[in-house]
Design goal:
It is built from three helices and six strands. The chain is an alpha+beta fold. It has a six-stranded mixed sheet with strand order 3-2-4-1-5-6, sandwiched between helices.
Amino acid sequence: MNLHVMWDGTYTLDDLFNEASESNTKTLTENKDKGLYQIYGDHPVYGSDTLLYIGKAVKQTFNKRINQEHNWWHNRHSSRIKIYVGRFMYNRIPDHKQWEDDVSEAERLLIYTHMPAHNSSNISSVYDSGRDITVMNYGMHRSLITEVSSKMWLREQNRLKIYGE
């Protein structure tokens, strides 16, 4: 199954946590503001403007989820934090449960393949939900690979034989 994600950004912490107004429409508080998000910033080992975190917002908006996930304001360079949000696109809109499953599967695969510095779950275990998915990233996906497939991580590779053996 192909999962299509349209990435949008750049958002800042100020955009998300300031009151919505005519001058600030980037608060990400509308019902459509759910899906995946990426956070970029400075890291003492990996350098500046690096992928720090991939997360999901399914039961609440990006605004609420990002505020809960980490206290990004305590990053010594919090003014340089950049946030990108990914909304899922479909030919036929699925039911809510299927959409949540899609978001969770895509998050797991993207975290496993990109290994962001601040993610701790889904990094050390091999991706293997048994579901053959490909995440197609569009728009402002930054350092995410454009097309990421779960095929490499499915258990069927354990049954493959090397030619000549």
